[in-house]
Amino acid sequence: MSHLPYILCLILFLIGLYAVLVKKNLIKIIIGLGIIDYSLNLFLVLIGYKKQSIFPILSKDTQIQPMVDPLPQALVLTAIVIGLAVTMLMVAIAIRLYEKYETFDITQIRKLKG
Amino acid sequence: MNNIIPLFVIIPLAGAFLNSLLGRFSKLFSDILSNIVCILTTFFSFVILFNLNLSPNNILTYRVGGWVAPIGIMLVVDHLSVLMLLTVNLVALCCCIYSISYMEKYTDKWKYYALFMIMLAGMNGVIITSDIFNMYVFLEIAAIASYALVAFGDESEKLEASFKYLVLGSVASAIILLSIALIYSYVSSLNLADISLTLSNMVDVNKVYFIKFISLLLIVGFGVKSALVPFHSWLPDAHQSAPAPISAMSSGVLIKTLGIYAMVRILFNIFGVGQKILSIIVILGLLSMFVGVILALYQWDYKRLLAYHSISQFGYIILGIGLATPLGILGGLFHLINHSVFKSLLFLTSGATESTLGTRDLRRMGELNKKMPLTTFSALIGSMSISGIPPFNGFWSKLIIIVACIQAKQYFAGFIATIVSFLTLSSFTKVLKYGFYGKSEVNYENIKEVPGAMVVPMIILSLCCIFMGLLLLPHIRQYFLDNVVNVLQQGTIYATKVFELR
Which of A81, B158, B379, B466 is deepest in the core (most CB within 10 A)? Predict the structure, then answer.
């Protein structure tokens, strides 16, 4: 049973990948990339998780106990910020594309080929 | 002297900040500021090169915030990094000078310069860092800036290309982040040298499989970033649509830094590649070479043709490095710097013709040799370099790669490399005949040579093309290229060297 969170995480990743590969709507592709991002963030947090342990803050009056690994949490914060930047850029470009082509359907946004 | 290492990130970031703060008030200010930034970083890369040759271990390190290695982030410069630093900053300087007059037709030039500076900071960061997550962050900084730069302007094609690039680039970044997470969960460290040492001391049955799995993930992730053939579909669109200096930057240096440098550093210096991974790299290289050049033969759009040739020339680099013999690595790395120079040169000439004629279609261009002599001269030099005509630099690197193929008994690879070289030559004969020397149906009156700020970088890069073959002379080679080859040849000794100096 201990593998269950990782398997769910993989399923989440695959759902995101499915959305990116199969969906024809720009917005759905963006949501798919968001899901991929979140599954990876979840994976990073899971790596640092340890059963029956406390938050990784050491102050004078707390007893020393096993704690979760703080480093992946710091990494996740950075990864979230990067994901935010990418998502915002994508949404901005999708809005501009809608103004130009008046559709969100990627099969109709095809001026470049060859 | 080690204190100048972080300046490679700090100076461009400060440039981006000042540009976005003050650039809106004066165009002249952002022109001057950005060029000063590029001149400074180029100057410092030469300073680093000279210091590196004097330092005992051929390695310079800097501790960010004073923290010791496995805990803090360490910046490490060795000969491979300095090779990349020199190329990146030199090409960036040329593109920056070129932008002064090329970007005049766009509004909000300061936004362009700010993004350009951020991209430069990201690339320099990828090159100097020695922490795998830090590398990912810098990679994303450079990539996000380049996504935005591809969409710079208001044509619908640019937005389309940028979106395609964004989706593929984000999936690639996700795969890279996944492999970083897996590495952290297995090794419990993010420092490259520490990862390497821990992995080599670890006794575990699954270690071999783990390294193979991670290497494959990284090849896919960085393969998308560097547009190797199964993953190449974003590159022609993005490079065709971007403004010319940005095409030159991203084709010349961006995809090399984000793709090849990062991949080679991690695979060769950290994991130590096995024979199977190397053969995958060679096969990818051969595929890229052949498919890229075949697709390029059909193109009539000047920039799209150049973009497909980028894919094909990338194949040469990857092939040379994948052979893993000293001669092969030398050829691959030499072709890497040569390709940066001549491909940037060709993209700059495409920008010059586009901004005067208003078209990129080779069939509508022509008779430029009298009206734009300097641009035509640069295009001639660039075309001869890329198709490997002696004595230009492209000839020497291709020769070395083909000889290395034969030495390594990879006759088929050598055969393909020769064929691709001929096809490249024929493709560029077409460019020169239709685009520059031939007759054109459209009558172009009042065509003048482009302004000086666009000619100077083209001339600088042409001179580089002519004289860079001299880097192979034994006396010059032992100071520079041989050391770079040693870095890759020694493989995981890198980690021990870095750890001694922490």
Answer: B379
Give the list of residues 6+ apart from residue B462 with CB closer than 8 angstroms, or none: B345, B377, B378, B381, B382
Q: Rounded distance, CA B320 to CA B195, Å?
A: 26
What domains does chain A contain, in order, with CATH numbers? 4-52+65-108 (1.10.287.3510)
CB-based contact B301 A114, cutoff 8 Å: yes
Q: Which of B218, B240, B223, B266 is nearest to B80 (CA)?
A: B266
Going by C-alpha positions, the residue among B463, B344, B465 that lies closest to residue B397 is: B465
Q: Which of A71, A90, A111 sits opposite B157 (nearest CB)?
A: A111
Q: Count Cβ–Cβ pairs < 8 Å, chain A vs chain B.
A: 86
Helix locations, B73-131, DSSP H: 79-102, 109-128
pLDDT tens per residue across span B465-493: 888 888 888 888 887 888 888 888 877 78
Phi-psi region of B188 (alpha: psi -120 to 50; beta: other; left: phi over 0): left
* Selected residue with higher pLDDT from A1 and B72: B72
Give the CA dihedral A14, A19, A21, A23, nearest 10 degrees: 160
- The verdict on a CB contact (< 8 Å) between A40 and B185 is no
Q: List, as one string, the DSSP characters of A47-114.
A: HH--TT-B-S---TTSPP--B--HHHHHHHHHHHHHHHHHHHHHHHHHHHHHHHHS--BGGG------
ipTM of the complex: 0.94
Consecutive H or E run containing B75: strand B74-77
d(CA A18, CA A7): 16
CA quadruple B199, B203, B208, B209: dihedral, nearest 10: -100
Q: Which residues of B touch A111 (CB under 8 A)?
A: 156-157, 160
The total number of structural domains in chain B stands at 1
Instruction: Please state, in angstroms and rounded to a whole number, the distance separating the CA atoms of residues B420 and B416.
Output: 6
Whole-Å CA distances, B38 to B11, B33, B98, B107, B113: 9, 9, 12, 22, 11
Cα(B440)–Cα(B366) distance, rounded to whole angstroms? Answer: 5
Average pLDDT over residues B262-288: 88
Which residue among B160, B177, B190 places its CB closest to the CB of A111?
B160
List beta partners, residue A105.
A25
CA distance B153 to chain A (A): 11
Selection from B304, B362, B163, B359 nearest residue A110 by Cα: B163
Assign 3-class secondary structure to B29-57: HHHHHHHHHHHHHHHHHHHHHHHHHHCCC
Helices B192-201 and B132-150, interaxial angle, to 10°? 130
> Residue B273: which domain range?
2-500
Token pair of B79, please?
A: 């000969």
Contacts of B315 (CB under 8 A, 6+ apart): B228, B229, B284, B285, B286, B287, B288, B289, B290, B292, B420
The span from the CA of B177 to the CA of B133, in Å, is 8
Helix (H, G, I), strand (E, B) or coil at B60: strand
The pTM of this model reads: 0.93
